[in-house]
């Protein structure tokens, strides 16, 4: 279909993750997850902060933040309150359960662990508008995301 619509396209103009470095794997549901986060953090949206974390993590889901000011800037925060605003959003992400953070040389968010957002969403399902949750479920089914299900608790 691409060749039919763009027959003269030079492949060099496209992003090919197999040929370049500087990419990460993210859930295809990320836009919906970001919307859920923004909805839960109301007038202090943290969805973009979460996305920035994903863009900097590797397969171990661990991020070492050596320069919080850089992440604040990447999250869209500038000025003298940029860092404090970013820290506030990070606290929100931790309170919602999307991340956990440990203190280190650069402060309380030096080491950050990103949890599977599909599992987190199931844990906080009661806080999410039903239509939004159903939309995420439908998208997960569309893409074959088998992890979009309730967290299983081990038998006692």
How are the SSEs placed, and which strands pair?
Elements: H1 2-5, H2 30-40, H3 47-56, E1 62-64, H4 68-74, H5 82-96, E2 99-104, E3 107-114, H6 117-123, H7 130-143
Antiparallel strand pairs: 1-3, 2-3
Helicity, as a percent range: 40-55%
Q: How much strand content do the residues show?
A: 5-15%
So what's the overall shape?
A: globular
Question: What is the number of strand segments?
Answer: 3
Characterize the biggest β-sheet.
3 strands, antiparallel
SSE-based structural type: alpha+beta
Named at the architecture level, the CATH assignment is Orthogonal Bundle
Task: Look at the structure and give the mean pLDDT.
Answer: 94
What's the end-to-end separation, in Å?
A: 53 Å
Strand line-up in the sheet with most strands: 1-3-2
CATH class designation: Mainly Alpha
Order of helices and strands: HHHEHHEEHH
Count the helices. How many? Answer: 7
CATH T-level topology: Arc Repressor Mutant, subunit A
For the record, the count of structural domains works out to 1
Radius of gyration: 18 Å
Low-confidence blocks of residues: none
Question: Main traits of this protein?
Answer:
156 residues, alpha+beta, Arc Repressor Mutant, subunit A, three-stranded antiparallel sheet, 44% helix
Q: What does this molecule look like?
A:
With 156 residues, the chain is of the alpha+beta class. It has a single domain, classed as Arc Repressor Mutant, subunit A. Helix content is 44%, strand content 11%. It contains 7 helices and 3 strands, in the order αααβααββαα. The protein has helices at residues 2-5, 30-40, 47-56, 68-74, 82-96, 117-123, 130-143, and strands at 62-64, 99-104, 107-114. A 3-stranded antiparallel β-sheet has the order 1-3-2, with helices on one face. Strand 2 and strand 3 form a beta hairpin. Helix 2 (30-40) packs across helix 3 (47-56) and helix 4 (68-74) crosses helix 5. The longest helix has 15 residues, at 82-96. The N and C termini lie far apart (53 Å).
């Amino acid at each position: 279909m691409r060749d039919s619509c763009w027959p003269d396209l030079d492949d060099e103009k496209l992003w090919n993750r197999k040929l370049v470095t500087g990419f990460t794997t993210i859930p295809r549901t990320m836009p919906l997850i970001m919307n859920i986060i923004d909805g839960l953090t109301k007038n202090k949206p943290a969805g973009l902060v979460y996305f920035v974390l994903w863009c900097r993590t590797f397969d171990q889901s661990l991020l070492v933040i050596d320069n919080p000011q850089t992440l604040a800037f990447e999250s869209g925060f500038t000025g003298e309150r940029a860092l404090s605003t970013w820290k506030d959003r990070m606290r929100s992400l931790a309170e919602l359960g999307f991340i956990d953070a440990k203190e280190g040389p650069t402060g309380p968010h030096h080491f950050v662990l990103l949890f599977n957002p599909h599992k987190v969403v199931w844990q906080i399902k009661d806080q999410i508008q039903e239509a939004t949750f159903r939309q995420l479920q439908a998208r997960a089914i569309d893409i074959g995301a088998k992890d979009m299900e309730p967290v299983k608790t081990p038998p006692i």
